[in-house]
Amino acid sequence: MVWKPRGTGSDSSASDKSDLVDRVLEARELQDQSEQFLNPSLRSLHEPGLIPGLERSAQRLLRAIKNGERIVVYGDYDVDGVTASAILIHTIRAISADAKVRSYIPHRIDEGYGLNEQAIATLHEEGADLVVSVDCGITAIEPARCARELGLDLIITDHHNPPASIDDLPDAFAVVHPRHPESKYPFGELCGAGVAYKLAWQLCVLHSGSERVHPELRQVLVEMLGFAALGSIADVVPLIDENRVIVKHGLRQIPHCRNEGLRSLIRASSLDSEKIDTEDVGFRLAPRLNAIGRLGHAREALRLMTDATGSEAERLALELSRINDERKAIGEAIFAQALEMAQAAGMCGDDRRAIVLAHDDWHPGVVGIVCSRLVERFARPVILMQRDGDVCKGSGRSIDGFNLHAGLTACGDLLTGFGGHDMAAGMRCDSSGFEAFAEAFIEYTNTLLNPNDLVNTVRFDTIGTVSELSVPSVESLGRLAPFGAGNPNVRIRVVNAKLIGEASPFGRNGNHLSLRVADRGSPDRAMRVVAWNWAAMREKVPPGAPVELIVEPKLSKWNGRTSVEPVLVDLRVC
Q1: 24 near 461, Cβ under 8 Å?
Q2: CATH code 3.40.50.1000 for 47-242
Q3: Cα maximum dimension of the chain
Q4: Residues 399-452 pLDDT 10s
Q5: Does domain 2-28+461-573 have CATH number 2.40.50.140?
C-alpha cells in the first residue's frame, strides 16, 4: 500500500501550522473558500430554473396537477431512484391532496434498468396522461419514441452520463439534466434525487406564484432535503458545492422527520438517535433500502418512504432489514467464488488489468456490491455478470482515473446494452459473446492502465502527532463534515509514535485489534486506536515498536466521558 499526501499542503508538519483544520483545508485546496465550505448555506443552492428543461417540466406538471390528470413518477430501483420518486410524490401531494399521482419502478431482474417500451405502453393503457422519470431515461430513445407515438407526455429527469450531442437526446416533452449538452447550470454532479428536488422546488415556486414559497410547501421542501441527502450519499456523488449543502442540511432533518416510514427504518437500523451522519446512511439506512430492490421489488422501499404508517411501516422496515441480511450472505458466497475464479484466470496480476467474470449462479442484483469489494482488494476495474441462458447481465465498478462508461463504450459493439457513470455501470451481452467482450475490455484496460496504477493508495491530509489529537482539535475537524465522495474522512499521518503494550483482539470473533499509541517522547500519554479487521496482522505490530500510522480521528463517548479514539487506516513499523 502506498502512502501519498492529498495535496501540496499535506506535507505540513505540526510546527508549520498549529491548527489541524487549517492544514486540512490547505491540503484540499480549500483555504480560499473556507468560510463557505465550513458553513454551507441553503442560500448558496443554485436556481433550479437554470437546469435545461426544468421550467417547462414544472409548468407541465403543475398543469397536470390542477387539471386532475393522471401522473406517473417512473423511478429506479436503487436508493437514489426511490428517494427521487418520494420527493416528487410528497411534493405533488402537498400541492394538491387530491392529485392523481402514482409511482412505477421497474423490476431489476425482469425489466432491468430505466425506461422500457412495454412499461410505457402499459402505463398508457392504464390511463396515464403524464410520465415523469427520475434517475433514469437520458438514453431512452426508443421508450421516448413510443411515448410520443402514443400521445403520452414524457418528462425525463436524470443525472447519468448524457449524450454529447443534443441530437442524440430522447425525443421527450422535456429532458431535465444538469449536464444537458446545452446546459449552463453551474454544477453538474447532482444525483437523481437532487435533480428531482430541484424540480420539486420549482414546482412549489410556480404554485406559490412567487419566489417566496407558501409556508406549508416550504416545510415540505425542508423535509425533502432529508430524502435528497439519502440519495446523494447512497449514489456516492461528490459532496461538494450544492451537494454538500443538501447533505449538510438534509442530515439534520432525518432524525426529526415526520415521515413514519423513515422513522421506522431508523429504528430498525438501530439508529434511534439525535444525530445521523453519512456513515450511518451509507452503512445502515441505504443498504436496507437497496436490498429490497436487489432481491425483491423496490416498490416496497418506496411505499415505506411514502404511504406506510403505523404497524405497516414497522413491518416493512423490519422486512428490509431481514432482506439486507440475506443480501449480505449471498454477497459473501459470490465474493469467495469470484475471488477464486479471478486468481485462476490470472486477472489479479499485472498482465490482465481488469477482472471480468460471469457465472450461472450469481445474483445480478448483488454482483455490483461484490465488484466494489474486489476493486478495493485488487485496485482495478471489475465487471461481474450472471449468465442466464442466452443473456449475461451484471454490473461493474472502477478505480479513480479509469472511466468505466468510456470503456464500455469502446466495447459497445459486443454489448446489447449498458449505462451508468464513470465509476459504476450496468451492462448486458449475449452469453455467446461474453468471452469476446471480456477479452476486449481487458485489452482496453491494459492500454490505459499500467502496473503502477494497480496499487491501493492511502491519501492523508497532513502530518501530526498523538498529542495534537486532543478532544478540541478532533471536534474542530468535525466542522469539515459531511464526509463522503469528494470530501473524504480526514486522515492524519501520525509520526514519531510508538506502541504501548501489546495489541489486544476484541469483537465477537476477535477480528479487531485495540492498540495503545503514544508520542515517543511522552509514553505516559497514550491513546487507544481501533484497528478494524486487523487481527491477522497482530504479529506485525510488536509491543514497544516505533511506528508511523495513518488514522481517521474519531471521538468516543462513554459514561459521559469524551475521548479521542482514532480508527487505524494503515501502520508501518519504523
Answers
A1: yes
A2: no
A3: 78
A4: 989 999 999 999 999 999 998 888 999 999 999 999 999 999 999 999 999 999
A5: yes
